[in-house]
Amino acid sequence: MEIRFDHLVIAARTLEEGVDWVERRLGVTMGAGGKHALMGTHNRLLHLGPQRFLEVLAIDPQAPRPSRPRWFELDTPQMQARLARSPALVHWVASTPDIESAVAAMPKPRPEVLDLVRGDFRWKITVPADGSFPSGGPTLIQWQSKHPADVLADAGCRLESLDGLAATIRTPKGTVELRE
């Protein structure tokens, strides 16, 4: 199964809180984002190099509650308590050119493959039905449109390393580590 790093997921109680947390640490301004209607979330993005980005994700207070659990455990009391302390790097996503084959090779229970659209972006993504994190690895994504990093302004940040949930990012002002 061919996979490669795609993006980091920073979760926060509010989008504003998460964006402020990232911008203070990295010393750069985040780019635009959008809303995920199916999940009742919204985000902002930061370019980390070709086909790579950082996402700040939060529950959208203007969106109706979704009919399914939100991704990345955002609905759980444990995640809510964690985010009450501070935004956090909670997960990472890997891209694959054939998500259906990748999922078929996974042990059961397998995550669902959801088809999502946000503006000009279209993608398939794996999400367990209960909104939990996938066991034993990253969430998988298959882009069916241009990649968000292709349209984001380059703020000069690059992912240097990822070890579990510790990411080292080179910024125009130096190297910063983001941790779980």
Molecular structure report:
- This protein has 180 residues and is an alpha+beta fold.
- It has one domain: 2,3-Dihydroxybiphenyl 1,2-Dioxygenase, domain 1, CATH 3.10.180.
- The protein contains three helices and eleven strands.
- The strands form two sheets. It has an eight-stranded mixed sheet with strand order 2-3-4-1-5-8-7-6. It has a three-stranded antiparallel sheet with strand order 9-10-11, with no helix packed on it.
- The model has no long low-confidence stretch (mean pLDDT 95).
CATH architectural category: Roll
In N-to-C order, the SSE pattern is EHEEEHEHEEEEEE
Q: Which residues form runs of ≥5 with pLDDT under 50?
A: none
Provide the CATH topology: 2,3-Dihydroxybiphenyl 1,2-Dioxygenase, domain 1
Main-sheet strand order equals 2-3-4-1-5-8-7-6
Number of strands: 11
SS content category? alpha+beta
CATH superfamily descriptor: 2,3-Dihydroxybiphenyl 1,2-Dioxygenase, domain 1
The Cα radius of gyration reads 15 Å
Share of helical residues: 10-25%
Count of all domains: 1
Oligomer: single chain
The main sheet comes to: 8 strands, mixed
Number of helices, where a helix is a run of at least 4 consecutive DSSP H or I residues = 3
Dominant shape: globular
